[in-house]
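WARN no homologs supplied; continuing
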Amino acid sequence: MSAPEPKKFEPKVPVQLNPPKNDPISVEELSKCDVFAGKDASRALAQSSLKPEDCRAEWQDLGEKEKTVLNDWFSFFSKRYNIVGTVAGTSNL
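OK structure emitted
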């Protein structure tokens, strides 16, 4: 029997999410979005940074604390938003 999933990052109001999609999404399409538009913000999220130079996909060399922060962001967003695809050309997963 597996342990129940922790309630960390659960939204106050439950969100009904669709199953995740794996459709490729181009960088051009992403550029229509918010502050991290058109960029893979993995490293910036892990470092809690808003610096443009930190908006890049490379995160494997970060310390365990930063990797935990990145994982927490993934948990936070995945409990609130539908996964609609993956960034085309990435291999970080």
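The radius of gyration is 14 Å.
OK
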